[in-house]
Amino acid sequence: APAVIVAIDGPSGTGKSSTSKAVAAQLGLSYLDTGAQYRAITWWMVTNGIDVDDPSEIAAVAGKPDIVSGTDPAGPTITVDGVDVAGPIRTQEVTAKVSAVSAVPEVRARITELQRSIAAAAEKGIVVEGRDIGTTVLPDADLKIFLTASPEARAARRSGELKNADVHATREALIKRDAADSNRKTSPLAKADDAVEVDTTDLTLPQVIECVVTLVEEKR
Ligand code: C5P
């Protein structure tokens, strides 16, 4: 079969990562978590004392960190200048700052180029998950999925992942981040016109995976 390119977009807490990884593993495809790349560049900015409220300061150094993503769905990896940052990119501090960093056009241009080269090198095809994959990064993807879920379901899933009892605070932070991602000028979170929307509110993870696998198989 020729390499198939699958774009999976949507807000946080819709099961994007779990679904994308499982679909890639099941179909023998590579996997790219683009949110991890934006988190990695944010981690570098924070670690190097860059003021993330100053877009010009961010833009000036956007080309500096060397970000490398491993694309095995069984164990995706991410390094910045050779340092494994898989853990540090999931802290609350990075999560709170990632929307500001990823809104800077120079950051997006650089990371988008990286994403396109990774997708082009994936000989067996790839599942790429993010916010703007179907609209901007890979507009010619063979299949575009847009995952949604109610705010309540999304907050509950995130709180479960974080083993955090405070569903309310999680919900507020998540809504704030999605609003920032949806309202930024440069390639905001959006459903592509030709994307298939899947509302996961009342579906289990295995059901969502099966649904997406079926859609990919129809395209192959
Ligand atoms: O998917 P995840 O929650 O890890 O993404 C973290 C952040 O990275 C998002 O809130 C968004 O600000 C940014 N992002 C983006 N474009 C993408 C993927 C993620 O702007 N394609």
Automatic annotation (TrEMBL):
It catalyses: dCMP + ATP = dCDP + ADP; CMP + ATP = CDP + ADP. This is Cytidylate kinase. One of its GO terms (cellular component) is cytosol. CDD domains: CMPK. Its EC number is 2.7.4.25. Residues 6-217 form the Cytidylate kinase domain. The gene is cmk. GO terms for molecular function: ATP binding; CMP kinase activity; dCMP kinase activity.
